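[agent] plan:
  1. take the single chain provided in the ticket
  2. run structure prediction with default settings
  3. attach structure tokens to the ticket
  4. add a short note for the reviewer (M.T.)
[agent] executing step 1
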Amino acid sequence: MAVPRFIQALPFTAAGFDLGLRDAAALYPGMLNVTLEYISPKELAICPDFDLSYHVVAEYYYRRCTDGNTVCALFYPGCNPTITLASLGREWNLFTLNSGTTFSHLRDRALYPSTIDFAPFQYTPYGASVLGFLHKHNWTSVAMVYDNSTRQIFNVMVYNAIEKHLRINGKSIRFYSYPINNSDSVDFDLVVTRVAQVARVVLISTLPDTARNLSMALYRLGAPATEFVRIYMDGPSNPFGPLKYAVGDADDEVAMKSFSGMFVLTACYDYRPEMSLLLSEMKDRAISKYSATFRGGSGPSHFVVAAYASVLLYHQALAEMIAKNLDIRDGTAAANILINRTLSFPSVGRVFLNEYGERQDMMCLTNFQPSTGTFETVMRYDSPTSHLVLAANYSIKWGTWNNQPPRNMPVCGYGNDMCQESIIVPVLLGTFSAVMLSALATILYIRKARINDQDAEWWNIDLNKMMRPRLRSTLVSNLNLSGTRRISRISRVTSVQQDIMTYNGHSVRLQIIKITHKPVFRKSTQDMLNEVRRLANFSQNINRLVGIAIQPTMVTFVKTCCQRGGLDVLLEEFTVDNNLKISLIWDIVQEFTIS
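[agent] step 2 finished; step 3 output follows
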């Protein structure tokens, strides 16, 4: 029987290969006599060394793999994928497997038919997971802050994957990108201010300490951080460590408060309970046989587990080829047996290879739990089915007052301090009658309307139905104005307060006028209601009045909330595209053509 041999580029995953070979012999007894061949670490010390050492692979192949009795397979663990090795696999028709990182460079089955990309994490599922999460909660505007420096290429690769996936598959999503260079001094206040002007869902692909600073910047600017959905992009075995609020500095308390509503998206695995014992064996073997060292309480990474699983994967392909009387020397046939299917192995659990021969693991969305200060898994993205699956006993802590996901409300939906003022309806600083007269003078086409008895209370807003409870302390139950006379003059207005809330499921803007002197009443309630009705019947292209609530010390106007802000915001903050220009021109024409 032919003897398959493995070529490994770096020795740090050797413990995974060793134990994979041991367990494969138990799972497939008597099938093959498999040995391992390692290239000396003196020749290959770091990943870039391999770019200058392809001749070592060629020399080995022609010396050991062409005698007719040996089947060789090329395994390339731990480093970035190389198309040169995949090309050699195609030329020699050898089964070739990459178990390092992946950039989807090897997914062309015509160019690399014998290659399997078995990396322990991939970039494509990040985009698919984000899009699924956005669709689930009807969010259509998202901003992404990412580090474009060279400290960690992972951050840029994740950004590229998400941007591409949303551009192709998320046609309804408005995507805004904000690159920062972590090598330079970052103005976090400026970054979050710009982000707040366009989106409430923020993706963060930076180093952990940068993500922590961004979250605290939102909190310190007075922005309601709980109204932002922040999703931090993490990778398995992140060399910079996990995202955490407590780092032992003076900002730990502020950081914990700012983490309310924070999520982390990362690859996760279907490991079985016995994996802990296997990891312990890998660590002991790496230390005793290969003089490996581990910092702190760390252990073998997911790349070592991928090396272990890759041996089992290749044995599975060989076993099926033997059962089907196929030539086990045919590397392309071995790869084709494995693609577009889910396989399961002891300890490792399920692994899925898509139609391109790329391993696609589950993605886990974890949520910050204030009670424990830790992140817990609340959702999983299942790559084989492309579905978001809720975790068992999940409990999402949104950080909102009612613990519900925030609504999609760009620009004006993030809190009073950061909300842009609208110029569509001026702030009421004069008397109540002056506002009514101004509205009547502006809209000349409205005919005289009468309010019948059946809908006489249509304008009366129930402030208790407002969604955000913090205003209820200042807004008591509204008065029944039946039989009273209309306000004609307010002797003094001390302040005008604005807020964004929801009323009957719709976003509305509140303008609250506080009054210090008792108003003078005159004329009839019927006249006042007539004028309010006219104001509410403005054209659809003008910000409409929903209703009013009058109290002893204040008058509250409830109007529709412009989701993208006022015209001043559009002109100053946004790049106006052709579609928006046409829409604005059409609205203007509609107003001039009203008779």
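[agent] step 4 note for reviewer: Residues 64 and 70 are 7 Å apart (CA to CA).
[agent] ticket updated
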